[in-house]
Design a protein that fits this description.
Layout lengths: L1 E4 L2 E7 L3 H9 L5 H9 L10 E3 L2 E5 H22 L8 H16 L4
Antiparallel strand pairs: 1-2, 2-4, 3-4
């Protein structure tokens, strides 16, 4: 399956084949749910670019490499702005953390 981006044909990768493509790039094979999380939630505000073609979710090797570059940049920017970064950095994660702290305080556990 291929599509044209800026006049250049790219080989599209079906969602079931994305973990193998990531393994070719990084040497590590992520679980399929990790790929789904990258598509839907993202990392540090960066989401993996995908398309739906014929009811199937697809991406490309270029989009995967761009995702890794963008995540690296986002994490480095976050680290230099706020000091060393550990864990999630999304605003939603911060809100979840604050709600959890409030629940613990209400129960007298914090």
């Amino acid at each position: 399956m291929s599509t044209t981006t800026n006049g250049v044909a790219e080989q599209m990768i079906a969602s079931r084949d994305i973990p193998a493509a990531v393994q070719q790039i990084t040497g590590l094979r992520p679980h399929y749910n990790t790929i789904r999380r990258w598509r839907t939630i993202g990392i540090c505000g960066v989401r993996l670019k995908t398309r739906r073609i014929g009811g199937r979710v697809v991406t490309s090797r270029d989009w995967l490499e761009q995702f890794f570059d963008d995540v690296t940049f986002a994490r480095q920017s976050k680290s230099t702005a706020d000091g060393p970064h550990h864990g999630q950095c999304s605003p939603a994660a911060k809100r979840r953390n604050e709600r959890a702290k409030a629940k613990l305080k209400a129960k007298g556990l914090l």
